[in-house]
Design a protein that fits this description.
- This protein has four helices and two strands.
- It has 194 residues and is mostly helical.
- Strands 1-2 form a two-stranded antiparallel ribbon.
Length: 194
């Protein structure tokens, strides 16, 4: 029995350090396991940071590659615009000259000045807006293409009615000599008729 007790004592002493070693080993394993978990968590955070940085770099690259839009114009832009405006103005002037030449051609084709009809018999104007300031005797005349107050007065003078442009305007106070139009009726006073 002594031997058994001895062996039992040895076994207890031998097993105790093994258990102590197992407990120490377990502590180290737990410590290492915790550190591995910390490293995995840190790695996950680093992965998220890298993804965010990659997105920022991608956005910045897109911004750099996108041409900048500016509301201001450079000198070259202004010079180009000025040149284009001058070209348009020149074309406008050429068109104006062409229109004037065509009007002259039409005037020559139609015989220049419009021949005036002989003054009609004495009549009062039908249009109250052209009524003379004072009752007078004279003629009603319908404006034709190319007529001016001076040309009308001359045509009547050529036919023996001694009237001036100022007398025609005085007899038609509402008529603007710069704005007479074809078909407009005006009163031609006859200073000789009483």
């Amino acid at each position: 029995m002594k031997r058994t007790l001895l062996w039992l004592g040895i076994l207890i002493f031998a097993v105790s350090p093994a258990r102590a070693q197992d407990a120490g080993t377990q502590q180290q394993i737990d410590k290492l396991s915790g550190q591995i978990q910390d490293l995995l968590a840190a790695q996950e955070q680093q992965g998220k940071r890298l993804t965010a940085l990659e997105k920022q770099i991608s956005d910045l690259t897109d911004k750099v590659n996108t041409p900048a839009v500016s509301d201001s114009a450079s000198r070259a832009d202004l010079k180009t615009l000025a040149t284009q405006v001058q070209e348009i103005d020149k074309k406008r002037q050429d068109d104006r000259d062409l229109i004037l030449k065509e009007i002259e051609k039409l005037g020559k084709v139609s015989g220049g000045t419009t021949p005036h009809k002989s003054p009609p018999s004495l009549a009062k104007p039908a249009d109250d807006t052209t009524a003379p300031a004072t009752p007078q005797k004279g003629y009603e005349y319908q404006v034709q293409a190319g007529d001016t107050v001076g040309a009308i007065a001359k045509a009547y003078r050529d036919q023996g009615v001694k009237v001036t442009a100022s007398q025609i305007l005085k007899a038609n106070p509402k008529v603007d000599p710069a704005k007479i139009y074809v078909g407009q009726k005006i009163f031609i006073p006859d200073p000789n008729a009483k």
